[in-house]
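User: Sequence in, structure out. Go.
Assistant: Echoing your sequence, followed by the structure tokens.
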Amino acid sequence: MKKVDTPMLKHLKIAIGSDHGGFELKNQLLGYLQGQGYDVQDCGTHSKDAVDYPRIAYTVARLVASGAAERGVIIDGAGIGSAMAANKIKGVRAAACYSVALAKNACEHNDANVLTLGAGQTNLEAAKQIVETFLAGECVEERHRKRVALINELERGPIELAPHQATLLATVGEQRVSASGTDLEKIAKRVQELLGAQGNPSISPALPAKPSLNIPQLIDHTVLRPETTRADIEQLCREARQYKFYSVCVNPTWVSFARELLAGSPVRVCCVVGFPLGAQPPETKAMEARAAIRQGAKEIDMVINVGALKSSDDELVLRDIRGVVEACRDGSAKCKVILETSLLTNEEKARACELAVKAHADFVKTSTGFSTGGATVEDVSLMARIVRDKGLGVKASGGVRSLADLMRMVAAGATRIGTSSGIKILKEASGEAFSGEAPKY
């Protein structure tokens, strides 16, 4: 089994829970894991009083699916019901394991992120070994990762079948599923193209956006210019409140002020780190991230060490990302990794994405907006293919200045957009005229 290095293992965030039948074993494992240095969240139950295991399983599974925990452990009497319940949550791959061999298989072959145990089937010493194997395991072989991707695909609807299986299912009809956001955006983009071909470009942006996307919640409303003033930040935050953007993205010097301006609103503060060159030492970036989080940042967009990546010094790049990820985890913030794609080959982009996955980042991001190019459909698509099934988002930034730009990026796989043109985009989506020039990114 491939093991992750011990220091990194100890930084895993683990959610653990049990029903009344697994209460004693849960408490024993909780103490054991904390004693080993793991960061463990106890999801209950907290007594031997009878409780419904689906509620516990749901809590642990949601924490894992959301990224608040990286692994989950659930204990009930047999371990079967909790696995069934947890697997109802999108993004969760729960496995009931009763031996080290099963735990090893569940991780290496199935990329399990939730382990369920049966207190009636497993004693403490065996449970410790099973849990340690589960936490150390990693799915790395391509043949297994392709099959895990198929498992994930089931959440989005029917998958391609061999003729025999397709024939068997022909009599039961097609499974009904709702179109995903990406599917809707592909449809919307095609509608735009058709309307434009018919000579109606002025109405094409308004039609697709309304029914399919909550556009403001895709947008990090951004001002990163070096000449940004206090008045600019006041305007940025006022607009973010008014239009309900997901976040404002600012330089470190403005984090505390932006937090004050946004107090009482759901708009988050996002801060760039190592910006815009990424050439600082890892320790400097980690310290910068921690300072920003203390001042109120809930998301950190860090620039990788591009030169180290191009020099094939993957160990330094991984340490660079990891340091900021750990700062974010300690401060309950999310970490986005800026690749600066315009400076990289496709091989380097793919390698950077894989290192971000290995470091347990939350997003990969295309660009700073201050280099030789910004986001492209091709780059977003490449990044999404690599990280999507690992639970990471993709942020497209740099040059996204219109509704058409935004929709192309979303169709390619972007789950967040960094732009200074958010208001212009929203006005295009609603069919309103936009007067004035959007600020440069």
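User: And one key feature?
Assistant: The chain has two domains: 6-140, 213-430.
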